[in-house]
Amino acid sequence: MDGCIAGVRERATWDQRTGRIRVRETSDRTSGTRAPDGQVTATPDHQPSGRQEEIGKEQLVVDTLYARLDELRAATRARLAGVRRGGPSGSPQNRSERDAFATLYEDRLAQLESVEERLTFGRLDLDDDTTRYVGRIGLSDEDHASILTDWRAPAAQAFYRATAAHPDGVRRRRHLVTRGRSVTGLEDEVLDLSSDSASQSSLSGEGALLAAMAAGRTSRMGDIVATIQAEQDAIIRSELAGALVVQGGPGTGKTAVALHRAAYLLYAHRRLLERSGVLLVGPSLSFLHYIDQVLPSLGETGVVSTTIAELLPGLVADGEESPEVARIKGRASWARIVQRAVRARQRVPAADQHLRIDGHDLVVRRSDVRDAIAKAHRTHKPHNLARVPFVREMLGRLADQYLAELGGPVAPEERAEVIDDLRRQREIRIALNLAWMPLTPERLIEDLFVKPHRLAEAAPDMSRADRAALARPQGSPWTPADVPLLDEAAELLGEDDQAARAQAKAEAADRAANLEYARQVLESSGAGGGIVGAEILADRFGGGGSRLTTAERAAQDRTWTYAHVVVDEAQELSAMAWRALVRRCPTRSMTIVGDVAQTSSLAGARSWASMLDPLLRDAWRQATLTVNYRTPTQIADTAQRFAAASGLPTSSLTSARDVPGALVLAPVPVAGAVGPEVVARVRAALAEFVGPDGAGRVAVVVPAGRVGEVREQLVEAHGSTPLLAGPAAALPGALAAALTVLSPTQSKGLEFDAVVLVEPAEILAATSGASDLYVAMTRPTQRLVVVHAQPLPGGFAD
Ligand SMILES: Nc1ncnc2c1ncn2[C@@H]1O[C@H](COP(=O)(O)OP(=O)(O)OP(=O)(O)O)[C@@H](O)[C@H]1O
Questions:
Q1: Predicted ipTM of the assembly
Q2: How are beta strands 130-135 and 170-179 bridged, if at all?
Q3: Is 751's C-beta closer than 6 angstroms to any atom of ligand 1?
Q4: Which of 311, 442, 516, 697 is most buried (most C-beta within 10 Å)?
Q5: Does the beta carbon of 282 lie inside 6 Å of ligand 1?
Q6: Of 713, 724, 705, which is closest to residue 676 (Cα–Cα)?
Q7: Where is composition skewed (Polar residues) in this entry (predicted)?
Q8: Integer Cα distance of 133 and 1 in angstroms
Q9: Which residues of 757-788 are buried (b: 16+ CB within 10 A; e: fewer)?
Q10: What is the pTM of this model?
Q11: Closest CA to 252 of 275, 223, 221, 229
């Protein structure tokens, strides 16, 4: 393809008067031809050229890229069909190889399908007169020459990092705006300081960025791959080793950055990460639902996402409890409490116990039990596994008593028979259980809450009041704060994994052979397309038809250890929850994003150092995000003033944009007038921000106890309108509707075009009220309407 690629310089700015983005255009005159190797060479062109002409030229390039994408899709489909045609015949080895290839091609196809939207979004014109297109995926032409650079590749880094002061070999950066497969706009930044039109903005791709920020919200978070900013890119590409804490105020892109970092790490360290997987921990299922499109849109599906409540496979923790009880359960001291509770089930009886077995007198002696317990402890195995040597030792000693009564020499087989016999005796089983009880984690933890003497024994330092607060009836549902305690117990109790170990040994030998074969296959066919490595393919060869992905296998296994863990809203996690996560990531390679000013959990972090130092010591580093991409200046400044007045530990924050009239204070004279005012404000917000295409979201954020009441008022006013989400309990679906009513905690991590905030003084008065109110104030992308009868908290007014 030959083409003259001329440049225009467009500058997009926020028009304060109209509240819209305005785009200015200047010509910058560059042209280029495409060489046979697929690289586009840019040369100065002194012919003035129009914007449409320029768009037309980019359209040709974009058409070429999509054509290549279509070709690759067709080729992969054909390969898949070929494998499927093979049918279910042949040896088991042949069948499992065919399944492995089918999965490989299905994954590749899914990846090629996922990049349809905005396949390419950027172009770099380099000092060496070459041009590089940047996109969601890397593509090469038939001659293996690169025609599109994956955004995660080192060669794409300059697209996000180059500035006029540090151009990094880039003369001009162009953002391509596309709709479907059509190019609809361009935005250029000249990074050559000697040029008149050198970019002055500290934001990269300002127009595209402003457009992304101003777009109507939907029920799902979108990716930011086309407009990642330099400070975000530095975090995304930060090295894999160690724990990276990303602190940043509301709307600084922490969630977005965490997800893009997961995608980047999977690309840059695929061999290391693909087998053990990446764990993503979010605050709630509704939040995970909100973000669950981002990674697939970046071509990644191999991430296990969960909440702390869902961490244990098969355990449902949907019970509720007061924040105060959750705080008590989150304390680090539970590590010792659970340990003591386990030890309390290994005890020397108060007196020797006399048993009569088959007409013989046997004594379960205190001294024997003491010795057997000590011997079992020396194995350093978990409780249930160490019970095996304990029982063996005790049965041996009892058998010796039994045989001594018989007198005379004893053959080893005879001794073994006696031991077997004794093992089956009910009285002996009871006596040994009393000394060393086999336990499940559920039984151990429930007993602590149900039997006050058990808790008193395991937690002698806990106050009476705290112990009383934990008491609950048997059979109560598990709560999220119980989960880390159950995990701690499971770790100390252990499971009998003998059979699993034997099987693993047999599988290891097969695997070595499969691995070698998989390497050869990938080398000779290039079939992986970068989405799968030899290790995974080898696992699939050996899978006997099992189609479980790494993510699926990991999600079913409590003891799975991940190569990397990403934690969002990390400030909410208790010390015990951190222990459960660190246990799942022995390398401590973690991305931890959060804001200690937004902590609402009483067990959560008020400072990263005090929460993480005890666990990670100095193996963590901190980065800070400083630009708020969500909230307009007026709202963000008010939130910052309020936070400062309330003593919250805020980070410094600058808003990326200003939207006139973003903050509206709506006082009403009496409490009874709040409801009607909310109804009227919601009606206006829906009319202004929700479009016929379904884009645009409005939330009413109310004091926690008033969600039901305000919802009723809205239902009454609007009828049972499909606009309004169901009751808050059905939250995962709540964001599908244009309007939703939430408590401040439920709104955490989410965002809306407009938020109607009800009675802030009442929100402030609740437990963790200051951080909850700070969270609620910082949810809107366009407008915050504050409806109040009570006086506004400090900092709301200038
Ligand atoms: N570089 C960017 N380009 C476009 N949009 C961005 C960029 N960075 C962040 N955003 C947008 O800003 C909004 C806020 O981002 P995000 O939710 O990740 O922030 P956060 O720091 O996690 O916020 P909070 O702490 O309030 O939950 C999102 O809509 C996100 O898509």
A1: 0.99
A2: unpaired
A3: yes
A4: 697
A5: no
A6: 713
A7: 40-50
A8: 15
A9: bbbbbbbbebebbbbbbbbbbbbbbbbbbbbb
A10: 0.83
A11: 229
